[in-house]
Amino acid sequence: MLEVRNLSVEFNGxxxxxxxxxxxxxxxxxxxxxxSGSGKSTIALAIMKLVVPGAGEVLLxxxxxxxxxxxxxxxxxxxxxxxxxxxxFTSLNxxxxxxxxxxxxxxxxxxxxxxEAWSAAVKMLExxxxxxxxxxxxxxxxxxxxxxxxxVMIAMALACRPEILIADEPTTALDATIQMExxxxxxxxxxxxxxxxxxxxxxxxxxxxxxRDVLVINKGRIVEAGSVASVLSNPRSxxxxxxxxxxxxxxxx
Length: 253
Prior knowledge:
globular
């Protein structure tokens, strides 16, 4: 469904992403794992053409997104590929209700009128288990907890029924209990909407809980790739081993 070939991104002559290639099959769940600053989020932004790669291809059903016009990419973003960003508090607009923000995505990509889009937004808030969604849709982001704001972001990302969801560390600022609730919610919506998912994280515990395959990223390069089971049981890269050792130390503490 999605194939990335030899993708590279430079900032001021420094390679943030260096010759990265992978594929995401329909219904697959691929983890991008690595420490902060390793290039994981830049890969995601390049796929969405929110940063301009210096080289490579991003093929969606065989068509190179990097060669499309901005108007064409606007139709792809949200409608075919959607993204959940790291911090829901800064990603949501504080001056609009959450219902307005979810409905806006539906109006832009599906051409619905305001009333129909609002109804679709409420249904999507219900789908991500926000209680009393009809009333809560009229509330502003600051009136929601961190976990609830993340659910709103998931609702917004899924509002137009995309085929691919990129989740960029959606549980980073949440406590462990809420993290697992969000992971379980993502599993549910993936099954319900038949999504292909790229999950970006530095936490191998989350990779194990959610992903089928994983790419380990270090300094913009893939240093290890394979099924989660094989990488966790037999890591080949010293960098992967260090990440796993760090997780074991945290778990012991």
